[in-house]
Amino acid sequence: MGRVNFDFFTLPALLLATILLIFAMKYFVAGRTARLTHLDNEAYRKLAERAVAAQEQQTAVLVALQAKTAATEARLGEVEKLLKDVG
Length: 87
Description:
- This protein is mainly alpha-helical.
- The protein has one helix at residues 2-86.
């Protein structure tokens, strides 16, 4: 009779524990996935910020080079004009 009581209470308890364990694992995985997704999104955001900063620096360098090129072209035009006048 002791064995019947043991089986009668043990089986539902194990079944309930298994169900609870499955749900706990499901929610643990969902939470971990959300956390990792958040970390990935944050990493992409930081990467995008660095890319924007690099593009801004490149734009500044390009503008400076364009200004220097324009000044050099202007001086070259003056030298050509002087050489035409002399020659």
